[in-house]
Design brief:
Two copies of one chain form a homodimer.
Chain A (H helix, E strand, L loop, with lengths): L5 H8 L3 H8 L8 H14 L5 H8 L4 E6 L5 H16 L3 E6 L4 H13 L4 E5 L9 H12 L3 E5 L7 E5 L1 H14 L5 E5 L5 H16 L4 E6 L4 H15 L10 E5 L2 H13 L8 E4 L16 E3 L2 H13 L6 E4 L2 E3 L8
Parallel strand pairs in A: 1-2, 1-3, 3-4, 4-5, 5-11, 6-7, 6-8, 8-9
Antiparallel strand pairs in A: 10-12
Chain A binds a DNA duplex (16 and 16 nucleotides) through helix 2 and helix 4.
Chain lengths: 340, 340
DNA sequence: CTGAAAGCGCTTACAG
DNA sequence: CTGAAAGCGCTTACAG
């Protein structure tokens, strides 16, 4: 019933457990060729699979990387995880995944469990307000790091550890600049929850850039970070601006801080008889793959999400230093902000 | 440097390690209230975090569930993983994730590693041809199961273990029936690779249902299981059928076995000046959330993906039996197959 | 209720 | 090059 043990292999090969361990699990001290062969043969015949738990206990390293995301079904996070996975694979590490549904209790719990599992590193993806990292979590991280654990965050403030920072602020500023250059002058924003730093950074980057050009938004509304959040925000925006088909003023250019919110907004406006980009223009952020064939095609900003995920685990595995990196966004102008 | 140990806690509380273990890590034998309090206090003050590796070794159960998917960035799989995550959380298990990029070597490797980590169960999501599960993998699974490991597959054939089977075949048949009922008579199929069972089942379910109505497809083409696969297949299909705007025969109704392929197809046709649904109709499969606001809205089939993922881990955790379950699809008729 | 001790399956100085 | 032995941090019969 019990799995084949190193002891079993050693017995069959007629060597000591130590020797079997050395040939099977890569030590610098390589035993004689004949011995090594006997051990390997025995292992194969018995179907020996090393017990990673026991190895971890003996080695004080588990080869595990804990990954915490808000929602694995969100394309933003699943792309990050894809990149993280790939990087973990080349480093021969395993990924422990937690999808928290944005529940901070669950998040804290997941981190605790990762620490209990003695993950070599923990990567926290997702975003929250400055200083929002609660005391408990921070205390746990401190101890974790004191015991040799590595922490890397993606897109959130943290006093310690590594970080890879998507440039939400400056990419949004570039988007604003590009839209102004394209001839837009009247702007509005559909922002996200004030508690989410990504949402705030994107909004600020956009508004600040406009300000530098002597422009400002005519109205701002906010909603949940979802399709429906964009939908209802867009209705409020339409009401506030008294938008209707064929206004003489020309289309206002709306920045929805997320592609999915932009999609919800377009749906809302369509129901109101408003056409994009003729009656209202809209830009999003994220460049979600399944949205690339949307009609009208959506002006947006692409972030190198997979690369961000990969870099995060690379930083986590690089025990040298607590590096901080930035990941630039790329503005993509498409039909949804095309001026007639 | 080293983490706080159960021994440390016991010392500080003035009890034996055994007692500390019993109060901290839930045993039925509950020590006296005073003692328990002392231990808990000591643990808190020291910041004790149980070493899951050591517990696993001593208990012969890791609380780990291995999850293998083809591509975590694919909405199909990320939805499954989301459901699996949620179910794992209620069962207080941790998820080990592997995204294989459809590379069978990587897949085999991931399974081996999961076994090495002594995962309590392994869930394999993704699809392959009948009997394609290679010998090595199968042999490993056999040993794994003999040692008490549980295996559950999603949407693929496996002689042993549990399974949850998305009803690709019958849901596709229902789709065909619905389209015929809506008045369609001329059909075509954009299928996937013959090596992917999901693709084959969907195609067969559709074609067989047509057959039962005395109908058959006018042409079938295949492509990769991607947006670009759908795009190029759609071009071939258009050429084969000599599709052009405003054909007198009316629109042919094309079943693309995946939403993303359908999206690629629509893009290809748009470039050719063909309009959906006026010149050509199209239905997909999957009901991808970010595509729900697509124009034209896409007729498709929804699978309860999260539920499928959740059921898979529930089955994996239910050591009673190797259950097999079916998950029905739901046909959703939308604009892309609307007849004028 | 509580503790001493063996055992889970490995790795790794330490001797030979 | 090879082996005996201690140790990694827990759990759990087995005694008391």
């Amino acid at each position: 019933m019990a799995a084949v043990t190193l002891q079993d292999v050693a017995l069959r090969a007629g060597v000591s457990q130590a020797t079997a361990s050395r040939v099977l699990n890569g030590s610098s001290r390589v035993p004689g060729a004949g011995v090594a062969d006997r051990v390997r043969t025995a292992a194969r015949e018995l179907g020996y699979v090393p017990n990673a738990q026991a190895q971890a206990l003996a080695r004080a390293s588990t080869g595990l990387i804990g990954l915490v995301v808000h929602d694995i079904a969100d394309p933003y996070f699943s792309s990050i995880v894809r990149g993280a996975q790939a990087a973990a694979r080349v480093a021969r590490k395993q990924v422990l995944l937690a999808s928290t549904d944005r529940d901070f209790d669950v998040e804290r719990d997941s981190v605790s469990t990762f620490i209990a599992h003695r993950a070599d590193a923990i990567v926290l993806a997702g975003s929250r307000q400055s200083g929002d990292l609660d005391r408990d979590l921070e205390a746990e991280f401190d101890r974790y790091r004191a015991n040799g654990g590595r922490v890397v965050v993606i897109g959130q403030p943290l006093a310690f550890g590594g970080a890879v920072e998507p440039e939400n602020y400056s990419a949004s500023a570039e988007l604003a600049d590009a839209l102004v250059a394209a001839g837009h002058r009247r702007f509005a924003v559909i922002g996200g929850p004030g508690s989410i730093r990504t949402a705030v950074d994107r909004r600020n980057g956009f508004v600040d850039a406009l300000c530098r050009k002597g422009l400002s938004t005519v109205v701002e509304v906010t909603g949940e970070f979802t399709r429906d959040g964009g939908y209802s925000a867009a209705r409020r925006l339409a009401a506030a601006l008294q938008l209707e088909p064929g206004l003489a003023a020309g289309p206002v250019c709306v920045y929805a801080v997320t592609d999915v919110m932009a999609i919800g907004a377009i749906a809302a406006w369509r129901e109101l008889g408003l056409r994009v980009p003729d009656d209202v223009c809209v830009a999003g952020f994220d460049d979600i793959p399944t949205l690339r064939d949307h009609t009208p095609s959506l002006t947006t900003v692409a972030l190198p999400l997979e690369q961000i995920g990969a870099r995060a685990v690379e930083l986590a595995l690089d025990s040298a230093a607590d590096l901080r990196e930035r990941a630039a966004g790329r503005v993509i102008l498409r039909d949804s902000t095309r001026l007639g």
